[in-house]
Amino acid sequence: MSKKFITLFMFVLFALSTFVLASQIIILHTSNIYGNVLPYDYFSNMYQPKGLAILKTYVDNLRSSNPDTILIDTGNLLYGSPFGDYSSLQEDNPVINAFNLLNYDAFVPGTFEVNYSPERLIGVFKNLKTSVLAANLANVFPSNVVSFKVKTMSNGFKVAMIGVVVPYDSQKYVDYIESVRNTLNTAKKMNPDLIILATSGGITNDPITGKQIAIRSELNIGDELVREFSKDVDIFLFGNQDFVYTGSKSNKIYSVTGSEAKGVNKITLNVEKDKSFKIKSVKIERVLLSNVEPSEIVLNQVKKFEGDFNKWLDEVIAQSNISVGFNKYMAMLDDNFVTEFVNKLIINYTNSNLGIWNVFNANCPGIPQGEITRRDLYSLVGKTTSVKLVKMTGADIKNYILTSAKLLKYNGVRILFDESLTNKPWLYDLFENINYSVVLNENKIRSIKYLGRDLDDNSEVIVSVPSVRTYGTNPILRGEVIEDFEIPVQQIIFENLKGRVIDGAMDSNYSVYVKLEYEVKPGDTFNQILQRLAVTDSELLELNPIIKNINLIRPGWKLVYYKKYLNLIPPIREFFEVK
C-alpha cells in the first residue's frame, strides 16, 4: 500500500470522526381553536382566514419540506364558535374529523373539554387520533390518554412531550405539580434531547420580565409550572388565553398562541450531532395564515354538514317586540339596549352585582323585530369568550371607567375616537347595574351611583367580566377573580333567552357629558342664563363659585356648565370621528 494512499485513508477517517450532523426541527403550537374549521366568521358573517382547513394546508406544506415537524394543541378545541357549537351536537363530529386530518402529535385538553361529563369526555378522547397528554387527570380513560410521549425524529433526536390540564370542573385530578414532577422523572429515563411541557393553563406574568400581563386566576397555572420546572423543561406551551406571546431567553421558549387557528407559533431548533445532540439555536415566531388557501380535503369533508348547519343557525330562539339598531361608536356615547341586554343576561346567570360588556362584533346590526334566531344572537356576541367574576372596589371601577374615557376626546366640536376602537370597540368597557356619567374634556366621573347611593372607593362589588378583557390589549388587571365561568357567552344567552320575548325597556344608566363655557353678556340675568343653558340653579352655582349673589351677575364672566354630548344643539349625533 502506497504511502500516499495511507495518508489519504487516515485523513478520511479523521474527517468522519469529526463530522457534525446539522438538522432542523420544527414545533408548531396551536390553542383555542374553538371549533373553527372553515375560513369564515359566523359571528360577523364574513370571510376570515382562519380554521383547521387553512391550517392543514400550511402544516402539510411544512411537513413536505421538513418531516421533522411536531404539531401540538393546548386545548379548547371543540366548541366556542358557531360551527363548533353545532358540531358538538353531532355524533359524527366534523371538528374532530378535521382535527384528525392534521395528524397532531399531541393534544392537551382545555377547560372547554373538561367541562364535559367524564362519560362524554371519554367518547371525545376515543375519537381523537392523537396522543392526549394529561398527567394530572385521574379518570380511567382510553389508552391514547397518557402523561407524556417521546417522539424520535429522523436523525435520532428525541423530543419528550408532557401535558398537564387545568384542574377545572367535574373531572378527577391529582396534584399537577407532583404529577409533572413524577412524569418528568420517568421521561428523563428515556434520555430525551428536548423536553416540552404543554399545559392548557394560562399565565399571569410575563415569563421573562415578570411583568403582570393578565389578571390572576386559578386557571393560570403556567407561572407555577415555569417556576418549578425551568431547570428541566426547554419549551413551555400555554393555553386558555386569547392573545399571542412569543418569548425566548437563554434557549428557553414560552408560547401563547391566540385563538381560532388564525396563525401558529412556530418554534425552530437548529441542532447538531457530534457524539451527542446539541441545540445550537432556537427561535419562536408568529406565523399568520392570511395568505394560505384552505385544504380541499377538509372542505369536502365538512361540506355535507353545510345545509344542516345553516338550518340550525336559523332556528328561532326568541321573539322581539322591538327593532333596535346598533352603532359601535354611539354605544360609547350613551347607554344602548344591545350591550345592556347581553350584559344583564350575563349578570343574572353569574349572580354578579355589576357587569362589564361591549359588543365584540364591530359590525353588529342590532336586534331585529320579530323572530330572533341563533344567527342573530351570535352577532350580538361577536367573539368567543367566557366570563370571570371579579371582586372589585369602588376605586377599581372608577379607574376602569376613566381608563375607557381616555379613549375618547372632545375637541370643542366633535368627539374623537382612539384608533384602537375601530376594530376593537370592546376595549371601551361599559358597565351595567350602576348609574354613571363621565365628562370627557375633564376626564372625570361626573356622578356614579350603586343601589341609589354614591359608590364609595372602599366598597366591594362582584363584577362579571369577559375573560378576553383580562389579558391582551389594555387588560383589566385590578381586582380578585373569585370564579371562572368557562362557558362561551353565547351559551349563557341561549340558555337564558330561549322562548322569551324581548321588549325595549332600558335603564339609561350611562351617559357622556362635555364641559362647556358661556360668557355672560350685558343684560343677562341669572334666570335667563339658566334657561339659555338648560341647567339647574344648584349645578350652575356649584360649578361657578364666582357667583356669590344671583342678582349680581357681571358681563364678561365665563361660566362653565355640563351638557350631555348627544343633547347639544344643533344636533350633532353624527359629529364624531376616529382620530
Can you offer a commentary on this structure?
Pfam families: 5_nucleotid_C, LysM. This is Peptidoglycan-binding LysM. The chain is α/β, with parallel strands linked by helices. It has three domains: 3-306, Metallo-dependent phosphatases (Purple Acid Phosphatase, chain A, domain 2), CATH 3.60.21.10; 314-511, Alpha-Beta Complex (5'-nucleotidase,  domain 2), CATH 3.90.780.10; 514-578, LysM domain (Membrane-bound Lytic Murein Transglycosylase D, Chain A), CATH 3.10.350. Helix content is 26%, strand content 28%. It contains 16 helices and 33 strands. It has a seven-stranded mixed beta sheet, covered by helices on one side. Helix 11 (337-350) packs across helix 14 and helix 12 crosses helix 14. The longest helix has 15 residues, at 3-17. The chain starts with a helix and ends with a strand. Mean pLDDT is 93; it is low at 12-19 and 571-579.
Task: Provide a concise account of the structure shown.
Helices cover 26% and strands 28% of the residues. By secondary structure, the chain is α/β, with parallel strands linked by helices.
The CATH class of the largest domain: Alpha Beta
Estimate the mean pLDDT confidence. Answer: 93
Helix run count: 16
Poorly predicted runs are 12-19, 571-579
Task: Say which CATH homologous superfamily of the largest domain is assigned.
Answer: Metallo-dependent phosphatases
Helix content: 25-40%
What structural class results from the helix and strand content?
alpha/beta
What percentage of amino acids are in beta strands?
25-35%
User: N-to-C terminal Cα separation, in Å?
Assistant: 85 Å
Would you give the CATH topology of the largest domain?
Answer: Purple Acid Phosphatase, chain A, domain 2
Q: In total, how many domains does the architecture comprise? A: 3
Number of strands: 33
**What gyration radius follows from the Cα positions, in whole Å?**
29 Å
Taken from the alpha-carbon principal axes, the silhouette is elongated
Which sequence of strands runs across the widest sheet? Answer: 7-6-5-4-1-14-15
The CATH level-2 architecture of the largest domain is identified as 4-Layer Sandwich
Main β sheet profile: 7 strands, mixed
